[in-house]
Amino acid sequence: MVIPRSLREQVGVSEGALLEVAVVEGGRLLLTPQVTVDRSILAGPKKSRKELLQQLSAAVAGIRQEAQANALDKVSMKEINAQVAAHRRKPIRKSAKQPAR
After folding, report:
1. How much is the pLDDT for 38?
2. Domain contains 94
3. How many domains are contained in the chain?
4. pTM of this prediction exceeds 0.90
5. What distance, in Å, lies between the first and last C-alpha atoms of the chain?
6. Quick check: helix, strand or coil at residue 68?
7. Does a structural domain hold residue 45?
8. The domain containing residue 57 runs over which residues?
C-alpha cells in the first residue's frame, strides 16, 4: 500500500514501515504502525539484567517521544478502550504470511 509522503510525515510514519490495517466503525480503515525488533539485539551476546533494563528504558523513552511528537499522548482512554473493544469483537483471521514482530 502506498501512503503519500505528506500523510506519512503528518503522523510520523516512515517509508516502508510495517502497518496493521483494521476496519473500524463506518467501514473506515485504521492503520497502526507496528513495532519491529532488531533481531541482532536478540541474537547478540547475553546481557546483564541492568543492561537489558537500560535498553528497555531507552526504547520506552523513544516511544513516548514519538507519541508526543505525533500528539498520540493526547488520545483519551475512552478512545483507546473503544478501539480495543472493537478489535476484540473482530474475528481473528489467520493468513499464510504474517509479518515478523
Report:
1. 65
2. no
3. 1
4. no
5. 19
6. helix
7. yes
8. 5-89
Q: Are 19 and 80 in contact (CB under 8 A)?
A: no
Backbone angles phi, psi at 7, to 5 degrees: -70, -40
Assess if residue 99 is contained within a domain.
no
Sorted by sequence, the CB contacts under 8 Å of residue 56 that are 6+ apart come out as none
Which parts of the chain register pLDDT below 70? 36-44, 92-101
Is residue 101 situated within a structural domain?
Answer: no
Q: For residue 81, what is its C-alpha cell?
A: 478502550
Separation between Cα atoms, residue 27 and residue 21, nearest integer Å: 12
* Residues 11, 30 contacting (CB under 8 angstroms): no
pLDDT at 60: 85
CA angle 62/9/68 to nearest 5° reads 35
DSSP alpha helix (H) spans, the chain:
5-11, 39-43, 49-69, 77-89
Residue 42: predicted pLDDT:
66
Question: What Rg do the C-alpha atoms of the chain give, in angstroms?
Answer: 17
